[in-house]
Amino acid sequence: MAVDIKEEIANYLLNNCFLIGNVDSTREKYYYVINHEEAFRSIFQPIGYTLVVHRNLRVVQLVNQHGTGRLSLRKYESVMLLIFRLLYVEKRERLSTNVDEVVATVEEIKNEYEKLGLPKKFDRVLLEDSLRNIKRYNIVRPLDRLLDMNSKIQIYPSVMLAMPDTNIKKAYEQTSALLQQYVNSDEEDEADD
Fold this sequence. Notes:
Radius of gyration: 17 Å
Shape: globular
Strand content: 5-15%
Helix content: 40-55%
Low-confidence stretches: none
């Protein structure tokens, strides 16, 4: 039995939260939603979800109206998500407006992480553990195997929506402030490490 395209995309959104319009694997789904926006709104509205289209970022987002279904990140996953957002903002400001792809190297991520002075050292295991949850939700995608400092990770514009804000400058300041909360934090109260 063939699966209806709307059903397939609706399930994809329920499982992944974001559809990215400038990524090959989700481009068709993104444009299908854009062309059938009202139909998708009517699918999600009765079950308590809002379909949000961010045309400037080319991202479709699914938001639960009741605040449930949110992903709980561990401390270091949260730190890495904030670092990805910070790097996205910095690189996006430097890129020309017609460039869609934002890429960071493991070395750039490591440098931002080490600025925080956290007790847990940055290594491949920490990065891979952090990426395991984050990449599932269409926020980042490793472009290489994470074997050396030159390995690359693509950061999707959806990283800006994982924590809402309005403009890039403000986002940079907010992200920097949030990251400062982790500077020299005590890891003894962490039960998950």
